[in-house]
Structures are given as structure tokens and as C-alpha cells.
Design goal:
312 residues, alpha/beta, disordered N terminus, 9 helices, binds zinc ion, Arginase, Chain A, 16% strand
Length: 312
């Protein structure tokens, strides 16, 4: 079989389906993770290992949904340098902090490559007919072609979207993290056959996404917006995704628009993330998601609700 995309995994090659047309969707939920992503920490930093550790603990012991677990591979340079400069890739091993939010921690280059590998594997699974969620850290949607920032080093969702586009797919990226995915927008802006849609608090970090431009549709939402209004914006954003008629949907799944999140001031409830999962399911288009933000101690329950809605 000649795959449309070829991915390296543990020194072997895994191929995606030979046809752009997705296989019949089936609803075993694939979750991609690896506890090695817990091995870096900056004490006091909100993007902590405990976020993912506690989420893994819950997903491994819950009985609500059936999970097919997979391990990510380390992404090679080729898909990364389609999006990031070689100089940026080299800088991840340089040992110099990028900013106060984004320290140069030991091994961060490998951790970031693993997050990219998780996104590429999730994409691979989606195109093979399985919904897939990559539960790894670091997150990625603030990383620009030349710069690590906002806890993000490599932009895994944009790398995966551009990999799919390079192979002829029409891709929509749906970003419901409460922060604007400035890096994703910078990478995808002006690209044909790609749509970027983001719903985010504004004003808030990183200060971008105040208006739409071209193929990037932004829904900036005032802090402490009534929950119904925020949900309406999510519905409108999702309608944009549906109307784009994508071959593939990539989701930047951040859970920090939750009312209990310490890094933003929006008011979503847990059931709203379950509703977002149901939206993904309703489209019946190959879809994968990657973890972005979400800093509340309730993150494990929010992720489980999202996957429950998605699995149906
Ligand atoms: Zn965020």
C-alpha cells in the first residue's frame, strides 16, 4: 500500500490510508499518551505534570468509556520544518529560557517532539476511521514559526494540519482553548484549503485574535461573559467548521474556558465540554484533538466529559 502520509514510529514506518477518502468511522476512542511527558517541571508553573498525571489516573480507572491506548513516537524533522525554522528547532536544545512562561528545561526538545508525534499519530488514527485524542504536554498552539512562548515549543496542531494539507487534504482547525492560538494563526494564515477558527477570551494572553482575517476566524469574547453567550459563540465557530466541508478536523482542545480555571475568567461548566465532544461526533468527518491548556484541578473530569460526549 502506498500511504498518503508516511510516519516514523520506533524506527518502523506506519502508513496512512492510500485514499484521501476516509474509511468508515468507528467509535473506539483512541487516547495517545506516555508518562514520560511528566518528566519535566518548573516548580510553581501552572503547566504542571500533575495536570496530565491526574487526567491519566482518571482515564485509566474510569468505566464510562472504552479507551484504546497508544504511545506516541518522536516526530522527525521533516514535518516540523514545514512549519518551524531549523534555527527554532535547534534553539530548543540551547538551554536558554524563551520567556518567563516558557523555560528551557532539560529534555524539552524531546518532549516537544513527542507532543508533535502524538498529534501526527492522532491524525493518522483519525484518517483511519478512529477518533483520537493526544494527551501529552507541552501544549503547542502559541508556538510560532520562530518562537517558543506561552508554555508552547512546537505547534503540534499546525504541524499536523500542514502535513495533511501537503498531502491534498482540506483541513479545519477548531481551537476552543480560552487563549487565542496566535502561533497556529500565524502558521496557517493565507494558506489555501485550511481554515482556522478560534473562540477565546479577549483581552487575555497573548493579546492577538481580536478580529478575523482571511482564512482565520476569530471569536474574541469578553471576560466573565454569560455562559450562554460563550456557548453561542462556540456554536457559531463550529458552524464555520462544518460549512468549510473539511476532509479532516484538527482540534486544539484547551479546557481553560472552564469557570474554575485560574488563568482566565470565562464561565463554562463541565457539561459544555461534553457538548463540544458531541459536536465533533456529529460531523462524521475524521477528527483528532490535542490537549492544549486547562489548569483547573477539575481538568481530569473535563477531559473525561469531552471524550464521553465525543464517543457518544
Ligand atoms: Zn489556554
Amino acid at each position: 500500500m502506498t500511504g498518503i502520509l508516511t510516519l516514523e514510529r520506533s524506527g518502523r514506518e506506519a502508513t496512512l490510508p492510500s485514499s484521501v477518502a476516509p474509511r468508515a468511522l468507528c467509535w473506539s476512542m483512541i487516547v495517545i499518551s506516555d508518562r514520560r511527558c511528566l518528566d519535566y517541571v518548573r516548580p510553581g508553573h501552572p503547566e504542571s505534570p500533575a495536570r496530565v498525571a491526574r487526567t491519566l489516573d482518571l482515564l485509566e480507572t474510569q468505566g464510562d468509556i472504552s479507551i484504546d491506548w497508544r504511545e506516541p513516537f518522536l516526530a522527525t524533522d521533516a514535518p516540523i520544518v514545514r512549519v518551524h525554522s531549523p534555527e527554532h528547532l535547534t534553539s530548543l536544545s540551547g538551554g536558554v529560557d524563551f520567556d518567563a512562561d516558557t523555560p528551557a528545561l532539560p529534555g524539552i526538545s524531546e518532549h516537544a517532539r513527542r507532543s508533535v508525534g502524538g498529534a501526527l499519530l492522532a491524525m493518522n488514527c483519525a484518517l483511519d476511521g478512529h477518533p483520537a485524542f493526544s494527551l501529552l504536554r507541552p501544549p503547542g498552539h502559541h508556538a510560532t514559526p520562530e518562537r517558543a512562548m506561552g508554555f508552547c515549543y512546537l505547534n503540534q496542531v499546525a504541524i499536523a494540519a500542514m502535513e495533511a494539507r501537503a498531502n491534498g487534504l482540506r483541513v479545519a482547525v477548531f481551537d476552543f482553548d480560552v487563549h487565542h492560538g496566535n502561533g497556529t494563526e500565524e502558521i496557517l494564515h493565507g494558506k489555501t484549503d485550511v481554515l482556522y477558527v478560534s473562540v477565546h477570551q479577549s483581552p487575555c494572553y497573548p493579546g492577538t485574535g481580536r478580529s478575523s482575517r482571511g482564512n482565520c476566524r476569530n471569536f474574541p469574547m469578553a471576560p466573565e461573559l454569560p455562559r450562554d453567550e460563550y456557548r453561542d459563540a462556540l456554536s457559531m465557530a463550529w458552524d464555520d467548521v462544518v460549512q468549510f466541508r473539511p476532509d479532516l478536523v484538527a482540534v486544539s482542545a484547551g479546557f481553560d474556558a472552564y469557570r474554575g480555571d485560574p488563568l482566565a475568567q470565562e464561565l463554562l461548566e463541565g457539561e459544555d465540554f461534553e457538548s463540544l465532544g458531541r459536536d465533533l461526533r456529529s460531523l462524521a468527518v475524521p477528527t483528532f484533538a490535542v490537549l492544549e491548556g486547562g489548569y483547573s484541578t477539575d481538568l481530569p473530569d473535563l477531559v473525561l466529559g469531552f471524550l464521553r460526549g465525543w464517543e457518544g
